[in-house]
Design a protein that fits this description.
It is a single chain. Helices cover 35% and strands 14% of the residues. With 475 residues, the protein is an alpha/beta fold. Strands 5-4-3-2-1-13-12-9-6 form a nine-stranded parallel sheet. β2, α3 and β3 form a beta-alpha-beta unit. α5 crosses α6 and α6 runs parallel beside α7. It is globular. The termini are far apart.
Length: 475
């Protein structure tokens, strides 16, 4: 009997160990959420204020598109991990001249590190689609910058990679058939993956399910694109089931790497997002969809597990983007990927941390009137319409000058904000400027650049109200 119980105890211990082992295999650690801090705008808060905003939101990872000294200085001693960038236009110089790379690292990296927690350098951005033809410079530039990091004893703490767009794939559907474009494989993909493997770095990937959905809304389910409950898509090549377009896109890249025998290279999604506003032709661009996509993505990332093809690898993501950037070119969506307006108010409410996940919902701000652009209340969203409001952070002098221009040379209808008129109250500079700016914006048919006023205004997708004043949407 004693031997039986001993054997039974040993069997139970072995079984328990097996369960723990299987659990460790089946469930990976939670991934991380960072954010892209782009600055193609003339109305954004100062870098010091941005750092405070990041900290207040629990965001401890940020990705930049340059090495601006003011921004890196503001990030010093903040505890925020930073990815900086060597811009595309510097790749040729970095590739051709080791001394250029040395000077760049000394002036832009070692000068700020370790007070500013720089953890990676993005060499270029979507270089393969750069119209300046910088692809051939990419890997030589990465190698020279790495040699510079070695020289300054920074290579063990700072990695180098380069964000690629999904357009570098020859095939992406089904995910198991993912492959890189043949003309990129030998010249740049293989050498870059070799470099990443040798230096212990990872592949940076920019993935936007919005583009795929918008172009194929008749074939792709919106729920599938937004991480909502759906019937899923089974990969005909390997039988794996996908419940989101995002994971299918990521696994297409993993499959492309696997086809070239680079299964051991990790990945970070350095850009992904959904616009809260777009042109009529940009199907799916809306505040509600942006809130759903980004909010559900955060939940997916922070609750652990990788993709169906790489279940043990946490999904690490940088949302695009922190702010709406009013000087970006292209369609309306390009200026409306931000989670925040320039006045630091939320465009929509989503959880960004584990703590917020416990009780948060992802909703447009008009679903919660405590979150308001400007200082007025927000009424119901009107799909496809936009308004122009004053940026309260611009300062009294700039607001007054812009108000004077709008009501004078600009030709805005400012009669409703005169004493005794319907929009005179509330009698504040921000309220009056908002009305005047919006009048000008609507008279100019909401054209690109007509809601700037040198950074004193920005576009919103909900009708603002100051007191009983109704803002027009056209003349």
């Amino acid at each position: 009997m004693l031997c039986f119980f001993q054997a039974q105890g040993m069997a139970f211990q072995a079984f328990s160990f097996l369960i723990l082992l299987l659990s460790a295999i089946a469930f990976s650690d939670a991934g991380s959420i960072g954010i892209n801090y782009g600055r193609v705008a003339n109305n954004l808060p100062s870098p010091d204020k941005v750092v405070e905003l990041l900290k207040s939101q629990g965001l401890n990872k940020v990705k930049l598109y340059d090495t601006d000294a003011t921004v890196l200085t503001a990030l010093a001693n903040s505890g925020i991990n930073v990815v900086v960038a060597l811009p595309n236009e510097l790749l040729a110089s970095a590739a051709a001249d080791q001394s250029f790379a040395d000077n760049w690292v000394q002036s832009n990296i070692s000068k700020f590190y370790p007070a500013t927690k720089i953890e990676a350098i993005a060499a270029g951005n979507e270089v393969f689609v750069d119209p300046q033809n910088t692809t051939n410079y990419l890997v030589p530039a990465m190698k020279n910058v790495h040699a510079s990091l070695v020289k300054f004893n920074l290579d063990s703490n700072i990695k180098i990679s380069s964000p690629i767009a999904l357009s570098c794939l020859q095939n992406s559907y089904p995910s198991s058939a993912g492959s890189f474009k043949t003309d990129l494989i030998e010249p740049v993909i293989k050498p870059m993956l070799d470099f990443l493997k040798q230096t212990g770095s990872y592949l940076m990937v920019n993935a936007y399910p919005f583009f795929a959905y918008s172009a194929n809304s008749d074939k792709i389910s919106l729920d599938y694109a937004l991480f909502k409950q759906n019937s899923g898509v089974v990969d005909s090549g390997n039988g794996l089931k996908y419940n989101s377009l995002f994971e299918a896109q990521i696994d297409a890249v993993f499959a492309a790497m696997s086809a070239l025998k680079y299964d051991d290279v990790k990945m970070v999604v350095t850009e992904t997002g959904w616009p809260s506003l777009g042109d009529e032709s940009e199907i799916g661009a809306s505040e509600a969809n942006a809130a759903s996509y980004n909010g559900n993505l955060v939940r997916r990332v922070l609750t652990g597990n990788g993709t169906p093809l790489r279940p043990q690898d946490p999904i690490n993501v940088y949302l695009f983007a922190l702010f709406n950037e009013n000087q970006k070119s292209g369609p309306t969506s390009e200026r409306n990927y931000g989670l925040f307006y320039p006045n630091e108010q939320k465009v929509y409410n989503i959880p960004l941390t584990q703590e917020e996940l416990k009780g948060g919902q992802s909703t447009p701000v008009n679903g919660n009137t405590s979150q308001v652009p400007g200082s007025g209340e927000v009424s119901k969203t009107s799909v496809g319409q936009t308004w122009c409001v004053a940026n309260g952070n611009a300062g009294e002098k700039k607001l007054q000058a812009a108000l004077d221009y709008a009501c004078g040379e600009g030709g805005a209808d400012c009669s409703p904000i005169q004493p005794g008129a319907t929009c005179y109250n509330p009698k504040t500079l921000e309220a009056h400027a908002s009305y005047a700016f919006n009048s000008y914006y609507q008279k100019k048919t909401r054209g690109n650049g007509t809601c700037e006023f040198s950074g004193a205004a920005y576009v919103v997708s909900q009708p603002p109200r100051y007191g009983n004043c109704e803002f027009p949407t056209g003349y």
